[in-house]
Amino acid sequence: MIAYINGKVAHVGETALILEAGAMGYHLQASASTLSRLSVGQEVRLHTALQVKENDISLIGFLTAEDVQMFYLLTSVSGVGAKVALAIQSTLDSGRISLAILTEEADELVRAPGVGKKLANRIVLELKDKMKSSEIAQEASPQQNIGAGNPEAKQEATDALLTLGYSRSEALRAVMEIALADMTAEQIIRGALKHLNK
């Protein structure tokens, strides 16, 4: 299987691109957010996912390995094919998708075209436990790093915000926006409260 391709962008379309590598041009489907960050002539490494259907084999390109993992997680849900997964990834980055699933905020996923409330709830239900053990939750976004740095301080800060009356999703979002590896629980709480009271 092809894990990634290093090459030069030869064409960027609405739903796909052509990446020149060696003497070959690879046609790669991609999310709108990925395509918006590419330009013709740009040298880039694209991580890939392989989709095999009855009458079609296609490669899908992503800027990070975490995005590939998120794609495979999403398409493991019944009713979520490549098109729907890419629509979700066009609307939300991997960090925000994982946060929406972990905090059971299905409405975040409904923002993606083709995702209704029923499907969004199914995604949350089927992926919540998988997401807790997934590396995406730790690596998808440094600003939203759930597990790195000082997890005890983050948990203490989250508990404190819950005690102050904030919802779990508000508390988690604020802590993940603010927390850095060397911050104490008190520093995280102060920063989170400022962030929440903007």
Describe this structure in words.
The N and C termini lie far apart (47 Å). Strand 4 (43-53) and strand 5 form a beta hairpin. Helix 2 packs across helix 3 and helix 8 (151-163) crosses helix 9 (168-178). A 5-stranded mixed barrel has the order 1-2-3-5-4. It has 10 helices and 5 strands, in the order βββαββααααααααα. 35% of the residues are buried. It has helices at residues 32-35, 65-75, 82-91, 94-102, 106-110, 117-132, 136-139, 151-163, 168-178, 185-196, and strands at residues 4-12, 16-21, 24-29, 43-53, 56-62. It is an alpha+beta fold.
Features:
globular, 198 residues, 20% strand, single chain, five-stranded mixed barrel, 5 strands, alpha+beta
CA radius of gyration is 19 Å
- If you average the pLDDT, what whole number results? 86
What is the overall silhouette? globular
Name the helicity range.
Answer: 40-55%
Question: What's the helix-strand series?
Answer: EEEHEEHHHHHHHHH
Instruction: Outline the biggest β-sheet.
Output: 5 strands, mixed, barrel
SSE order and pairing:
Elements lengths: L3 E9 L3 E6 L2 E6 L2 H4 L7 E11 L2 E7 L2 H11 L6 H10 L2 H9 L3 H5 L6 H16 L3 H4 L11 H13 L4 H11 L6 H12 L2
Parallel strand pairs: 3-5
Antiparallel strand pairs: 1-2, 1-4, 2-3, 4-5
Helix pairs in contact: 2-3, 4-6, 8-9, 8-10, 9-10
Please outline what is shown here.
The protein has 198 residues and is α+β, with helices and mostly antiparallel strands.
